[in-house]
Amino acid sequence: MTCDDSSSFLHAYLDGELDAPRCAEFERHLEGCVSCARAFEAQESLRSSIRDAQLREPLPAGFENKVRRELDESALPVSSPRFHAWRLLAAAAVVLLVVGASWKFSLRNRPGAEHNATAADAAAVELVDAHIRALQPGHLTDVTSTDQHTVKPWFAGKIAFAPPVSDFAAQEFPLVGGRLDVFQGRTVAALVYGRRKHFISVFIWPDPAPEMEQYSGAMNGYHWISWKQNGLRLCAVADTSGDDLVVLKDLMAR
Amino acid sequence: MQDREHFDQLVLPHLRAAFNLARWLLRSREDAEDVTQEALLRAYRFFSGFHGSDARAWLLQIVRNCCYTWLEKNRTMGSTVEFDEALHLSPLPGPEAQALAGSDRERLTRALEQLSPRSREVIVLRELEGCSYKEIAAITAMPIGTVMSTLARTRERLQQLLSRPGTKEGIDDM
Q1: How far apart are CA B63 and CA A66, in angstroms?
Q2: Does A2 touch chain B (CB under 8 A)?
Q3: B43-79 b/e (C-beta count within 10 Å ≥ 16 → b)
Q4: Do A121 and B128 touch (CB under 8 A)?
Q5: Which of B155, B163, B172 is nearest to B81 (CA)?
Q6: Which of A50, A166, B82, B99 could make an S-S bridge to B78, C-beta 3.0–4.6 Å?
Q7: pLDDT value for A91
């Protein structure tokens, strides 16, 4: 084992995350290498001073009871009188597809993640969250308006970027409204367009990555297409045809 | 309600871990109370979506997201450096804190608070919560290799910060 190897194994060894053969190799190296042994000692002593300092924050007095009370009081979502079954179904359909689509995204965008089922699980949990939330009656839109001048300002102050909001009623993609959603831990904007009897959700978030790739796909009868414009990534999702989404994409990217 | 009972058994035991992570990410006990509470309510709302076996990692992931959202929302006009200086120059509040001044605990707290949140969280999860690399990867949505390299880098950085007491350190903007 070289000193380079040793320094990269040092932390895994310290954390008990190194496999047995490498542990043995590492220990042998330390016996014969003063500088690596010194580096290891320094890290060990840092660790024990962190442990001795007892930095783990105790709960404030009464905090657990306070949380329990809050939980007691948190009512389950109640159906609003304006609730219609078709709306719920539409929301469910959109979200199901997004779960599938974003799942693919998260795998694709994180090289190495395929080998990391845990990170993938993590993405799944998040998307399930989004699913459950959007299933709640009335969650399809937070602001319901066909007027782009109502929807756009609604987002201001809620998110740190300005999503492109336009109504395409003339092209038979009427704007229905907008909402906030959460994807991979960040708040994203979602615009809702109507298309005949369907709804299209367009999720929008800042994406500093330089690549301009466009993704699209279909699964279980739903289509999605994702593209970049002006530093934002957009992903349109619906159970309409993929062609419809391409038309909407072209309209938005214009 | 059965769900609630299940939640109390599975998730509530990790309340301290949740609060601890929030306190270190937000560098404030008061803010950590608010955000932890919000995170618990959120977790409860989404509880039916939890099918895994590691309730702690699941909860900490939600707490972490809530913390970053909070940090994003409350980012002040001033830079973090100014914020830190203000923090360090302010007189220590309370007798307990004064007793700690100059102690190892105080020095470590200062050093940890100078790290970027992304560096700080891996140390907190590893050293304070005893999470495995795999759990840290799940909570932070980072590949395990990145967890390992972040830990290594952050520990070196902490050593630097601690070996030069009294000097003002810049912010680790890794």
Answers
A1: 17
A2: no
A3: bbbbbebbeeebbbbbbbbbbbbbbbbbeeeeeeeee
A4: no
A5: B172
A6: B82
A7: 63
* Per-residue pLDDT tens over the stretch A100-145: 555 544 444 444 433 333 333 343 344 335 544 554 556 666 777 7
Q: A172: left (phi > 0), else alpha (psi -120 to 50), else beta?
A: left
- The residue type found at A112 is G
Report whether B14 contacts B100 (CB < 8 A): no
pLDDT in tens, A136-186: 556 666 777 778 888 888 888 788 888 999 999 999 999 988 888 777 767
Alpha-carbon gap, residue A67 to B29, rounded angstroms: 15
| Beta strands at A175-183 and A222-229: parallel, antiparallel or unpaired | unpaired
**Residue B22: CB atoms within 10 Å:** 27
Which tokens hold the place of A38?
A: 């010194």
A66 vs B: CB within 8 A: yes
Whether the complex's predicted ipTM is more than 0.85 is answered with no
CB contact under 8 A, B159 and A47: no
Q: Which two tokens stand for residue A101?
A: 């689509």
Pick B138's closest partner by Cβ from A52, A110, A121.
A121
Q: Is the torsion defined by CA of A128, B123, B33, B69 positive or negative?
A: negative
For chains A and B, CB pairs below 8 A equal 139
Mutate to test the interface with A, among B147, B149, B153 (most CBs of A within 10 A): B147
CA of A47: which chain B residue's CA is closest? B127
- Token pair, residue B29, equals 């006990």
* Residue partners of A32: CB distance under 8 A and separation at least 6: none
Q: Minimum mean pLDDT among A96-105, B60-69, B126-135, B137-146: which range?
A: A96-105
Query: Position of tokens 């969280």?
Result: B121
B71/B137 Cα distance (integer angstroms): 21
Q: Residues A83-92: contacts with CB within 8 Å, 24+ apart?
A: A83/A137, A83/A138, A87/A137, A87/A138, A87/A140, A88/A135, A88/A137, A90/A140, A90/A198, A90/A199, A91/A134, A91/A135, A91/A139, A91/A140, A91/A199, A92/A134, A92/A135
Pick among A9, A44, A105, A116 to test the B interface (most B CBs inside 10 A): A116
What's the token pair of residue A151? 């929807």
Per-residue pLDDT at B154: 96
Closest to A235 (Cα-Cα) out of A199, A205, A196: A205
Phi-psi region of A99 (alpha: psi -120 to 50; beta: other; left: phi over 0): alpha
Predicted TM-score (pTM) of this structure:
0.55
